[in-house]
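Lecture notes, part 5. Sequence design as translation. It can be helpful to think of inverse folding as translation between two languages: the language of shapes and the language of residues. The source text, in structure tokens, appears below.
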């Protein structure tokens, strides 16, 4: 099952990946703060990820890795 890994060091909480995900399974994690002070992106429904890489391609900071 595909999933993603978000690099907390590089994520700046911009939310572009959240908007880009066609399955709506990403959100900003309001319960966590990165070392740079942002709410990082998070996969909220792992079973819904189809591994399409839209989030990876959209992230301006290359903070997402898609694992298939
Ligand atoms: S790989 Fe595709 S489905 Fe999975 S979280 Fe990223 S944009 Fe959404
Ligand atoms: S697009 Fe990249 S930097 Fe922006 S919230 Fe998503 S993972 Fe973080």
């Amino acid at each position: 099952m595909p999933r993603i890994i978000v690099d907390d060091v590089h994520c700046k909480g911009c939310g572009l990946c959240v908007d880009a995900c066609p399955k709506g399974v990403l959100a900003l994690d309001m319960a966590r703060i990165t070392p740079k002070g942002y709410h990082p992106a998070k996969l909220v429904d792992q079973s819904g990820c189809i591994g399409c890489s839209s989030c990876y391609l959209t992230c301006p900071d290359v903070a997402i890795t898609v694992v298939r």
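The translated text above is only one of many valid answers, since several sequences can fold into similar shapes. Residues 6, 11-17, 41, 58-59, 61, 63-64 surround iron/sulfur cluster (ligand 2) (CB under 6 Å).
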